[in-house]
Design goal:
Length: 286
Amino acid sequence: MSSLRADVYTAPPIPWKKPNGQKGGLWSPIACTLIHGSKEAILVDTPITIAQTNDLITWIKATIPSKSLTKIYITHGHGDHWFGIPTIMKEFPGVEAFATAATVRHMEGQVKLFKKGFGSQFPGEIEENFVLAKPLPQNNEMDLEGNILRAIEVGQSDTHDSTVLWVPSIKLAVCGDVVYGDVHQMLGECNTKAKRQGWIDSIRKVEALKPEIVVPSHKRASEIDGAFHLRNSREYIESFEGFLESGKAGDARELSKLMMEKYPTRFNPGALIVGCINAFKTESKI
């Protein structure tokens, strides 16, 4: 039996700003997973802001007071999952961050877009001395006290080049943005039928692993990290596609209304609205 265990910290929603400085809404909560053995630990993903990351650091110290944090793994390139790296490194000297080569390239792209993107949404709140992850070795594996942690490149999620960190010894899948909890899934980048199908295919790749523990990237703090998140995330995309294919949704407003009626408890309808708008932008060009 493996000696590994895992804990999940969910950074709470925080407000973001529009380009004109007005309130834009609340960002979805972000799950950060701490996998640890008897002496060492690996963190999967970070929050966005310095303040959020400091709260995460306080939690890490309380959770593993006698263990060493040695590595950070980043599941994909979206900045809301790795901008906290330098803040963590200041507090835990010697920590190294890793990701797949494709994720590192995506991270580089996020830095180039920072001022127009996250920088304008969270002005003055993010550490701008960015630290990119190092590429994993070719086998995409890390070791934690004799246990393999394998980065599985599944492809499309709410963005390209997404991965899941698979820990076979405890049947744990830390899914990044491949899987969501009770939070509206961001379909803004999945603005074609092919991309939405790609996301479904990625979820099925995780299902094929038969995990017992599934950590979604964006979830309510109270949610259990169960395998049911896989089915729920897949069915959400299928519902979105079904409303488009059936003609029940004639425009973005109708699509948003139908999805809200079907998923009334999901957090952050703003993410849903972006996906609905982009779906019809693409359809109008075809």
